[in-house]
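Run log, item B.
One chain of 320 residues. Sequence copied directly from the ordering sheet:
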Amino acid sequence: MAPKQEHLTLLAEVAMLYYEKKMRQSEIAAILDVSRSTVSRLLEEALREKVVEITINYPWQSSAELEAQLEERFHLKTARVLIADYKDDQQMLEGLGSLAARYLTSILRDDTTIGVSFGKTIYHTIKAFRVEPSPQRKIIQIGGAGNFDNLAIDAVGLVQLLADTIGGARHYLHVPMIVESEAVRNALMNEPAVRKTLELASQADIILIGIGGTGPDLELVNPAYQVVAEPTDKAEPGYAIGAICGQIFDVRGEPLDIDLNKRVVGIGLDCLRTGKRVVAVAGGQRKALAILGALRGGYLNALITDERAARTILEADRKV
């Protein structure tokens, strides 16, 4: 056994004795004939090297009242609203992911086909799944990819992670999300392999999307795509308010007639309007208007959001 592999095995054995067998560090030290401080160091290393991962299943609660209001107002099949009992954005993302995974688990079958977008909420949703894998499922990339190291914004990585988590065959789009011209985009969309994958995506039982927002501290499109899109928080027709799969729309949900939207490779917004179950996972008060635009555009029929965003959405819908 290679030295590195041997050391990882030692970390796993120490972690098993401590976390599963509930042995004290002094007892483990006696078994291994090492000091207690060495055992403590090995346990810390096991966490750092992800030999051990600790999951806290926080009892996230939802608001039935706000869910009913959103479902009625926007004709949604389902709404789930996370009660705002969190300290920061990271906790909110984890709560939304847990709530979304709980909902998706309730409708997941052994042969479900799922189309997957990208984003932090999608990542946290996938990480929160606790289901038995099934090889009959299909996991489909619904938009082109960027060359990212960050799994949370990497469509290819999220397809792989979801397939590893719940099982199923992977269907990738081997194209960038945004290309240099409309002509290149049209040529790629007509490629047989791309067309076949997007046809599968359009017929998916579930399409899982995030919603991007605008504003001074929200990036509409990640700069790694080398796309310049001037952010604005103007809640007026014709101004960028949000984006789904790289396609930008205004507060009415109308796609903007801009060059950027003509260079996006992936499932179209019109296709989302006719999807069987399009589940958007997005939250935070700053994204409320982007979510409102997506709701008005009819790009989703199931929403997982948080209490602050939900209240702002309902209030803004009466005013904007």
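Observations after the first pass:
- Confidence is low (pLDDT under 50) at residues 220-232.
- The beta strands are 78-82, 113-116, 138-141, 169-171, 206-209, 212-213, 242-244, 247-249, 278-281, 302-306.
Flagged for discussion on Thursday.
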